[in-house]
Structures are given as C-alpha cells and as structure tokens.
Design goal:
Strand content of chain B: under 5%
CATH superfamily of chain A: Dimeric alpha+beta barrel
Oligomer: heterodimer
Shape of chain A: globular
Order of helices and strands of chain B: HHHHHHHHHHHHHHHHHHH
Distance between the termini of chain A: 33 Å
CATH topology of chain A: Alpha-Beta Plaits
Largest interface: A-B, 19 and 16 residues
Order of helices and strands of chain A: EHEEEEHEEHEEEEHE
Number of strands of chain B: 0
Helix content of chain A: 10-25%
Strand content of chain A: 35-45%
Helix content of chain B: over 70%
Largest sheet of chain B: none
Structural class of chain A: alpha+beta
Radius of gyration of chain B: 25 Å
Distance between the termini of chain B: 68 Å
Number of helices of chain A: 4
Number of domains of chain B: 5
Chain lengths: ~240, ~425
C-alpha cells in the first residue's frame, strides 16, 4: 500500500528544529530511501509562495496564499510504500517534522502507480498541486463532475504531470504529533477544517502561469480549489 | 536643476528598473542601480550640465552600475555579458562614459513590469506596493505613509512580493494576446485603487497621499500608450482625468465634502476635461465597451453639464443600467438609483432602493441609508429622512462623510419640527 505523509509545520515550534532534528531527518531520509520505503517526496516553499486557483460562474479566480489558513501549514510531503497504515504511522512518528508540527498519513487508492521523480528539466520548476474540497460548493454538484482522465492524459502527454493520485477520504487519515518524546496519534486530518485535501499532482512547468493554466483545466477547479505550491529542493536555501 | 533631475526621475525611473529587471532578473539590484544613477545625476548635472538626453544618460549609468555589481559576483557572468553587449550596441563604443549614450535604443520593458507587479497570484496590497515602488520610484517610506502603515510593514510586504515572484516563478512578461482580456482588468484595478487612495485623501492629509492621484494617472497613461489596441486603459485614463478635474471643487475651505450637485463648476479643470474627452473618444472608437469606458462616459456627462439641473440624467441612468448589466454590482445599482431619481423623481429611485435593501448585499454600507435619506428628504418625508440619516451616520465612521450626514440630519430635523 502507498501512503502520503503530509508534513504540516507549526510556526510556533520552528525553533525546535535543532541539530538533533536535522540529524534525525537525515537519518530518516537515508533509511527510508535505502529500504525502498520512500518513493518520492519534497519540501515545499512556504504558504507565502502558494497560489490557489478556482473557477466560479465561469470566471477564473486566482488568489495569493494557501487553500485554507490554518496554524499548521503544509510544508512538504513523502510518498511511502508500507505494509499497513500502522507502519506508515510509525514512520511518521520517527520523522522530526512530527516534533515541530504534525504529519497527516493518508492512503492512496490501490490503483495509483508509484514513480520516483526526476530532477526538474532545464529551465523548469516543479510544483505540488493540492486538489482540495470547498465546503461552499454543494456536495450534489459532484454528481456532475467531469471525469479527470482527459486532464490526466493531456498533462501526462505534455510532460507536465509527473505524478499524481487521489487520496482516500480524510476520515481514514491518521495524524501524528510527537511532543516530549511521545507520539500522539489522532484519527482524521491535521486540520479540523471543512476544506480538505482530496488528491495531489506533481507538475513540472516553465513558470507559474503555465501551472495556473494546467490547474484551471482540472475538473475540480469548478467544484473545489487547487493550491499550487513550488517545490523547495533541499539544496536551495 | 533640481527640477530637471526630479522630472527625469519621474519619467525615467520605471523604464530603467523595467529594463534592468529584464536583463538581470534581479529586482533589488535594479532598484539599487536606478537609485545610484539618480544620485549621480544630482551630483554631476549641476557640475557638468544636463546631458542632451537625460533618460539615456541615466539608463547607461544604471546599467554600468549593474555590470559593476554583477562582476563582483562571479556567478552572474552570463548576465554581465548580456548587459555589456547591450551597452556596446547602444552606445556604439566600449566607452563607459555615459555621455556617449545619446542614442537610447533600449526597448521599453515597462509593460512586462506592470503585468508582473499586478500578477493575480500576488495579494492586492502587494501589487499596489510593488507597482508604486518599481514603476514610479516612490520610496518604501513614502508608500508606507501614503497607505498609512508602518514603514517596516510596507518593507516586509515588498520583500514578500519579490520573494513570491522569484520562488513561485511568476514570469516577467506581457501575457499572450489571448490572455489579455483576462489580465488587463487586474492591472487597471490596481491603478484605479491607487488613484482612489489619492482621491479620497483630504487636504489635511500628507502630500504623498494626494500625490498618488498623479502617479496613477501617469501609470494609466503609460499603459494606454503601450497597449494601444486595448480600449479599457484609455477608458480608465479618461475616468481618472474627469475625476481629477473636479478635485479642487469637491472639498470646501473647511475640508467638508461638497456633493457634485453643489460644486462650483467654474472650479472644474477644463484642460483635464478636454484631455479626458479625447481619450474617451479614442477608446469608444474601438467599439469594445468596458466598465471604465462607461464610468468615464458617465463622468463625461457630468463634466459637460453647465449646471446640475442641466445634466443629462436619463443618459446617465442608461449608462448605469449598462454598467449594472455588465458587473452585476449592487453599488452600481445604487448609483443607478440616484440617476433614476434625478431623471424620473425620487420615488422612482426609492423603488430601486427597496429591491436593493431586500437583497441584503449592501447591508452595513452607509451610502445605502444615506441615499434613501436623500430621496426621502426630497420627497418632503422629513421624519423618515431623519431616521435614515441617523442610520447612515452611525455606519459612516468618522471624517467628512459623517460631518456631511450630520449636517443634513440637523436640516431635516428642523424641517420636521416646522412641518409638525
């Protein structure tokens, strides 16, 4: 089974990211990659660099900022191959971002194939596009949602979409926070908001305008919101 | 001498930063080098005389400054070469002396800069700040004062905006032609917001705030020139000029607002009205109406009327109808009610207000009860007018608007007493 670890950082705890956390982080990355558990992942630029895209009444609405303002903010993700949810939760408890915030563990549907990410092409930039729900939209609207397959085929064909998947509903999520060396595991997503992450895509684009163009064509642009967040490779500071 | 440099600063700042950002991709470097070039001009022009083409001189000095700075950091070698090639091409010599640079062949990149600063992925307040900083050269401190926020807040806003442009990779370009209809309105909204900040500033407020009007007009002019095929920038420019033409008449000596009806029309600036009319005619010739063109046309109706009574209110009401259909905005509908009240009497205006009030979209907006109060006053229903003025005054905050409402309230109260 594949699981997405959504790292959510708490700005109040940022100072707790010390040398010990850094060392634990390096060890975690090394071990998960060596054992084949870690399929892909990236740090993300802060929410200040996020852009959300939606279409309402036929009009494109572009907004500065994340899909929902919460105290803990999505700061990165990892995609793991694990035998069970419990195993994924254990990995989350060992990742130091659970010390300075939370890690939400979400299962991917079985059909999602896994692929490691290539380095960005020359002059390209990678974005994580979070596909999110909008509580203001009537749930009945979803009966009429267009299939996403043409969008996937199109963006895959253009070499823009590198990976992506729906996520199992947030009701099946677990969230891990480590405080004073003990793990607190709760049911449900990290943010108790009505807006929730329903899926994600990794995009490789020339610039933000291209990413916005891709996002607006996603069927969820009319029924939810799409947050486009630049990758933040660890070699860049 | 100081004014020559000041004029050059106003005219050239945006072109210089736009070109340097285009060539180096470095916003801070561009600003610093533009700043240095103007500082040098202030030092050297009094001594050496003003160059024949001050703009070209400044551009060359700024670019040379950029080359110097980039040379010191070796990672930018490719950019240095690009800049050096441009410098040679323009001056025709390898000379680093700016006086050789009379032929200014630098393409105008301000359109790229405007579209980038006004990119929809930036927060509105960031778009405004960045536009003013990079295109007009207002300092961070000045922009902070104009928008009544601490300088540190404004500095942070600018840094954050530049970071987002770099990190999220907002492209430095003019959107392709098919994207213009979607992107131009956002740029115009930024310029109109800047204008209105300045326009609403009272005479007692700091000069820099009132200066925003002129900055916005100058930017609208640049946009209208650089996008000759688009009618809406010309429409906005016309609208701003019509509004600015009334600036001297809209506030009395005590700093109180004077309504359009009561303004001394002799104090309206006919030069600006003439300019506005010309820009509007050019815009309308494209036969692609837009909301700024229509608003300008409405302002034009007022400007053309010798007295408030002689205003073509039926035409204004029709224009507001057009605008309401286009925008669906309840504020526009409120304005239409005012025009209809003038054309067909206050009772007709009240009927539109009743529909607006049922709709609730303008709940808490002081101009809604204020307008109702005015209609009731004109119908002689003084008691009802008084309570509507009270309601409006309670919502109006402080400042001249509230003083105006309270004055009217006292007026209708005394009428009510005389009547009853």
């Amino acid at each position: 089974m594949r699981y997405m670890l959504i790292h959510a950082a708490d700005p109040d705890l940022a100072s707790k990211w010390d040398d010990e956390a850094q060392a634990a982080f390096s060890a975690w990355i090394e071990e998960t990659i060596r054992t084949g558990v870690n399929l892909q992942g990236s740090r993300l630029r802060p929410t200040a660099d996020a852009t959300t895209v939606k279409i309402r009444d036929g009009e494109l609405i572009i907004t500065d900022g994340p899909f929902v303002e919460t105290k803990e903010q999505v700061a990165g993700y990892d995609l793991l191959e694990c035998a069970s949810l419990d195993e994924a939760v254990r990995w989350a408890g060992r990742h130091p971002s659970s010390w300075v915030g939370a890690i939400e563990v979400r299962a991917l549907p079985e059909r999602a194939p896994a692929a490691p990410l290539p380095k960005p092409g020359e002059g390209k930039i990678q974005y994580l596009m979070l596909v999110c729900t909008d509580p203001a939209v009537d749930a009945r609207e979803f009966d009429r949602i267009e299939p996403v397959d043409p969008w996937v085929a199109d963006t895959d064909g253009q070499g823009i979409r590198l990976y992506g998947s729906e996520l199992e509903p947030p009701s099946g999520a677990r969230t891990v926070r480590v405080r004073d060396s003990s793990a607190i595991v709760t049911d449900g997503p990290f943010a108790e908001t009505k807006e929730q992450i329903a899926g994600f895509d990794v995009l490789e684009c020339a610039d933000l305008d291209e990413a916005i163009e891709v996002a607006r064509r996603h069927p969820m642009a009319r029924l939810g919101v799409l947050e486009v967040r630049p990758f933040w490779p660890f070699e860049e500071d | 001498m100081g004014t020559v440099a000041a004029d050059a600063f106003r005219q050239e700042w945006g072109r210089i930063t736009a070109a340097l950002i285009h060539q180096t991709g470095d916003w801070d470097l561009a600003e610093e080098c533009a700043q240095d070039a103007f500082a040098q001009a202030l030092r050297r022009w009094p001594r050496d005389g003003v160059p024949n083409r001050p703009g070209a001189w400044l551009m060359t000095v700024a670019r040379n400054g950029a080359i110097d700075r980039l040379r010191r950091s070796s990672t930018y070698r490719a950019k240095v070469e690009e800049l050096a090639v441009m410098a040679t091409r323009e001056t025709g010599t390898d000379s680093r002396e700016p006086d050789a640079a009379d032929d200014d062949g630098v393409p105008d990149e301000r359109l790229r800069l405007i579209f980038t600063c006004c990119h929809p992925a930036l927060a509105m307040e960031a778009r405004v700040a960045l536009t003013l900083r990079t295109l007009t050269g207002l300092s961070t401190a000045e922009i902070a004062r104009a928008f009544l926020v601490p300088e540190a807040t404004m500095a942070k806003r600018l840094v954050r905006a530049k970071h987002k442009i770099a990190n999220a990779r907002i492209p430095y370009r003019v959107p392709p032609a098919d994207a213009l209809p979607e992107r131009v309105p956002g740029v115009l909204a930024v310029l109109y917001l800047v204008f209105n900040e300045g326009y609403s500033a009272s005479a007692g407020e700091n000069l820099i705030r009132r200066d925003l009007c002129d900055q916005a007009v100058a930017l609208a002019q640049v946009l209208a020139e650089l996008l000759p095929g688009e009618p809406e920038p010309k429409g906005l420019l016309a609208l701003m000029l019509y509004q600015r033409s009334r600036q001297a008449a809209r506030v009395n000596d005590r700093g109180d607002l004077v309504t359009l009806e009561d303004q001394d029309r002799a104090r309206w600036d006919q030069v600006q009205i003439g300019l506005a009319r010309r820009h509007l005619e050019e815009a309308l010739a494209a036969r692609r109406p837009g909301q700024y063109q229509i608003q300008a046309a409405i302002a034009g109706c007022h400007a053309a009327a010798p007295t408030a009574q002689a205003t073509d209110w039926p035409r204004i009401a029709r224009l507001y109808q057009l605008l309401a259909d286009m925008t669906g905005s309840p504020v526009i509908e409120l304005n239409r009610a005012v025009a209809v009240a003038m054309a067909d009497g206050p009772a007709a205006g009240l009927a539109i207000l009743r529909r607006l009030e049922a709709d609730d979209a303008l709940a808490g907006y002081y101009l809604l009860p204020a307008t109702r109060a005015d209609f009731l006053r004109r119908l002689g229903r003084s008691d009802e007018a008084a309570s509507a003025y009270e309601e409006a005054a309670a919502l109006a905050g402080t400042g001249p608007e509230r003083r105006f409402l309270n004055a009217r309230l006292a007026e209708v109260r005394s009428q009510a007493q005389r009547g009853g």
